[in-house]
Structure prediction request, 117 residues.
Amino acid sequence: MTPRHHTFDEAAVRAAVLAFPYAFRDPREPARFLVCPDEESRREFEEQIKENPKGNTPMVLIIEVRPEEIIINQFAGGEETLGPSKQFLTWLLAHYDVTVRNESGTDLTDDASNLAD
Prediction:
């Protein structure tokens, strides 16, 4: 997603992402946040990353936050990431006028309100 006017307020968006109880910032990529399904997996994934920084990214909800773009990758985490993904999308659409595109670049802006339903 890209903002139609100006840029995203990174601090506000980061705060919204970190409001999820099992979210954390990926120390390997400061723009990337990982939203885990529970506390146990959060602790496990944080430890895995700490022990092996070059390892694979956990299969969880991934949200990348940059001033000019936000990427939501719910597919990495499967069905358990759908709820947090929709909650974040709903928050984002309520706070920003955005252009929404899928991973293929197809413009979904007109359908954006339905994406969060």
